[in-house]
Amino acid sequence: MLFDRNGVTYGTATSHTAGSGTFTVNQPGLYQASFHGVLSPSSTASFPVNVVVSLQQNGSNVPGASVPHTFQSKTENVPLSFSIPLSISTVPTTLQVVGQGGTSLPTAITLNVTKLGELSS
């Protein structure tokens, strides 16, 4: 999914280029990744349509950060969200939200990546 703009940013622990789908974690630490969005089936969908929205870290799904939904009609709009802590020790690390399965249209999507603290040694 592409995120067209950036909200409040502070420091250099994370970065994102507006219009891209990749968030980069630049400093080791404990982070919280929180996603929220509204999905609708594409206009050409054949029902039912199964979709899964997941957080990926360096191209691999993060366990516990996936939300499935099955669309039954073209008029559905469904809010999907997840929030998960991440322990990141190797940087740079990339984070992306990806949709898998049938074609869906995301709107009003946000991904907040917040550094909670340092990793203990």
Residue-averaged pLDDT: 94
Largest sheet: 5 strands, antiparallel
Report strand order across the widest sheet.
Answer: 1-2-7-4-5
Shape designation: elongated
CATH C-level class is Mainly Beta
Helical content stands at under 10%
Alpha carbon gap, first and last residue: 35 Å
CATH fold type: Jelly Rolls
> Helix/strand/pairing class, anyone?
mainly beta
Spans with pLDDT under 50 lasting ≥5 residues?
A: none
Q: How large is the count of helical segments?
A: 0
Number of strands: 8
Count of discrete structural domains? 1
| Residue share in β-strands | over 45%
CATH-derived architecture: Sandwich
Question: What Rg do the Cα atoms give?
Answer: 15 Å
Give a description of the structure.
The chain has 121 residues and is mainly beta. The chain has a single domain, classed as Sandwich (Jelly Rolls), CATH 2.60.120. Helix content is 0%, strand content 61%. It has a five-stranded antiparallel β-sheet, with no helix packed on it. It is elongated.
List keywords for this structure.
121 residues; mainly beta; Jelly Rolls; five-stranded antiparallel β-sheet; three-stranded antiparallel β-sheet; 8 strands; 0% helix
Brief account:
With 121 residues, the chain is mainly beta. It contains no helices and 8 strands.
Per-chain topology:
Blueprint: E1 14-16, E2 23-25, E3 29-41, E4 49-57, E5 60-71, E6 78-88, E7 93-101, E8 104-117
